[in-house]
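Thread title: Can someone regenerate the structure for this chain?

I was given the following input by a collaborator and told the matching structure tokens would be attached. They weren't. Posting the sequence so someone can regenerate them.
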Amino acid sequence: MELAQVRLLVTDFAACYRFYADVLGLKPQSGASEGPYEKFSPHTGSAGIALQDRAMMAEVLPELAGAATGHRSLVVLRVDDLDAYCAGLVARGATLLHGPAPMTDRMRVAHLRDPEDNLVELQEWLLLRG
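Best answer:
Regenerated them for you:
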């Protein structure tokens, strides 16, 4: 078994597309900025994040027709230089909720939200000391 992607069900596809492409800097697979589907990939690694129009999925699973509430997911991305990456995010219009800050002695993190209130955690992995 191989993880192909994490898919987020969204109602404002265009805003989420811009966030993942323009703010986070992930590479869109096809450029379908209006949806109903797009997969984004980081510059390295094979995992991906996909956006799916919630209304389209509600045609298949009717219980998805209602409005989603609360934090429904946490997307985690690893970066090499958390401070520099976060500075770039803020310059592109993102608002950090937390960090960059230590989470453990092995990791620093920062958190932000996408336009649909999905949480995004950015991680910088540190080498163990001593």
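The first strand starts at residue 6 and ends at 10.
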